[in-house]
Specification:
By secondary structure, the protein is mostly helical. The chain is built from five helices and no strands. Helix 3 packs across helix 5. It is globular and about 30 Å long.
Amino acid sequence: MEYVYAALLLHSSGKDVNEEGIKTILDATGVEVDDVRIKALVSALEGVDIENVLSQVPTTAAAPAAAAPAAAVAEAPVAEEEEEEEAEESGIEGLGALFG
């Protein structure tokens, strides 16, 4: 979620939403930076008119609603890693059955 907030902060201050800007903000706040997440977020926001998206959402839910699609994209690499770990674990369990 911090990644999306950093992007919104850059946008609201009139700066370009880019990898360097997001990384700078996250570093300044002490958040452990994941370059893959930053790249995914910037890629997901490429070509998106953030101001237009924010204007279409009710004011009480503007930031969370606008952030939800980008957050889902930003978290996608983590989900893939978890699936790989589960596949490895199930494979190891299968080997245990072979050797009793």
